[in-house]
Specification:
Order of helices and strands: HHHEHEHEHEEEHEHHEHHHEHHEEHEH
Number of strands: 12
Distance between the termini: 42 Å
Strand order of the largest sheet: 2-3-6-1-7
Strand content: 5-15%
Length: about 425
């Protein structure tokens, strides 16, 4: 660093990457990255594969429409989140490692607008407590989709004001204790990390990571350069698994495309991983969806009767240990509270006679079935998984990922733009 750079604090730089002089095999490259990650980290089964594919995905920033956040969360500290972000900084496109404690909205706005780096934010649970924290959360939310912007008012030199737009789009990885804001979780692929067992040994990080990282980046850059068209084509044919909702299909589409472009076992591996790492109903703070899933479970456990009395239904819900209804604001869920929770879904208690002539005031299966259809259980998330079928965007008659031109302005199968 020159004396002038030291005087100015050192300019932010993203030096060019030297490409290896030979073609890189996609499956072998991803396997190598997985081995590298697992050598330094204790991760959930399948997590290293998702992280590896996510890292390669960031290099296609000019081609993608969605930028899912990689959220590594844990219940306590010393669970490997900082090391994960450090490793990612050597793999991703223009990795910029920072902290939720000292980061400011002004820095991120300008850094992202000029360079579109992959922001790797450690201690992200502190974002909301910082000055301008709401501005940072807004940028992270808006940055999930290409074209997302944030605005600021600026004073004109001669008086008056004008609005300045900042491009918010970009890839981000968060490391935090606990849960982030529910809007960020909805835009995330979540890695749930735990502190490693005492009898598990991993490599110690150090300066040797610089050499290893440079070698991997050179291979990644070469593979990406040689496979832009393959990725663009795969992006338009992404599977739409039924165990993922529409937002999750958006989040996973780029990963499916990277895996498809790489080939080998990777398309099947990432598709299977999406079952294990799909969002857990209610984890994002959406208690409405959790309630619908639990209602379906109660009706199923009781043999799907025509109706269940309101008091009986609330007692059954309160017995579900993994749901919050047994201690809802300090007491068990009441029939009145249940009715209020379901009112936005246009479902409520009603008094009718069953086919056997019994008069019941409660919740009727025929009223709830449309909700069960719109908010289905997903395999791996409950006892009522619906199988493993999926369709592609093309088969569904719509694309969750709009066509995006490549760097030369071309769209696969279309004219130049």
């Amino acid at each position: 660093m020159t004396s002038e750079q030291k005087k100015n604090g050192g300019a932010v730089r993203f030096p060019p990457v030297q490409l290896v002089p030979y073609a890189v095999d996609g499956p072998a490259l991803l396997d190598e990255i997985v081995d590298w990650l697992e050598a330094y980290l204790f991760l959930p089964v399948g997590a290293a594969a998702i992280i590896a594919v996510w890292a390669l995905m960031t290099w296609f920033i000019d081609l993608v429409y969605f930028a899912p956040i990689l959220t590594a969360k844990s219940p306590t500290k010393r669970s490997g989140k900082t090391i994960l972000l450090d490793l990612l900084s050597r793999l991703v496109w223009r990795g910029h490692l920072t902290s939720g404690i000292g980061i400011t909205a002004a820095v991120v706005f300008r850094l992202n607008d000029e360079y579109h780096p992959t922001l790797l934010i450690d201690e992200a649970e502190k974002l909301g407590s910082q000055k301008g924290g709401s501005d940072l959360i807004s940028l992270l939310n808006q940055g999930h989709r290409k074209g997302g912007q944030v605005q600021r008012c600026r004073e004109k030199n001669g008086g008056g004001w004008y609005v300045e737009n900042f491009d918010a789009f970009g890839f981000r990885a968060l490391g935090l204790i606990g849960d982030p804001w529910d809007t960020l979780l909805d835009r995330s692929i979540v890695i749930r990390m735990q502190r490693k067992p005492r009898d598990v040994f991993v490599r110690r990080s150090g300066r040797h990571l610089d050499v290893e990282g440079v070698c991997l980046r050179s291979k990644i850059a070469r593979w990406v350069k040689d496979n832009e068209r393959a990725f663009s084509t795969a992006l338009q044919q992404c599977p739409r698994p039924e165990w993922l909702n529409d937002r999750e299909c958006d989040n996973w589409s780029n990963l499916f495309a990277v895996a498809q472009a790489a080939g080998g076992h990777w398309p099947d591996s990432i598709l299977e991983s999406s079952k294990l790492f799909a969002a857990i109903p209610g984890e994002d703070g959406d208690l409405g969806e959790r309630l619908i899933h639990d209602l379906r479970a109660v009706f199923t456990d009781n043999g799907n009767p025509e109706a269940i009395k309101s008091g009986n239904l609330t007692r059954e819900l309160s017995r579900i240990e993994t749901s919050p209804w047994g201690d809802y604001y300090g007491k068990s869920l009441s029939p009145t509270r249940l009715a209020k929770l379901l009112k936005p879904f246009e479902v409520g208690p009603d008094q009718r006679r069953t086919s056997g002539g019994e008069k019941i005031r409660g919740y009727w299966l025929s009223d709830l079935l449309p909700l069960f259809d719109r908010y289905p259980f997903r395999p791996g998330m409950g006892q009522l998984g619906q199988g493993n079928e999926y369709t592609t965007d093309e088969q569904a008659g719509k694309a969750s990922v709009p066509p995006v031109p490549d760097k030369e302005g071309k769209v696969e199968g279309g004219a130049n733009v």
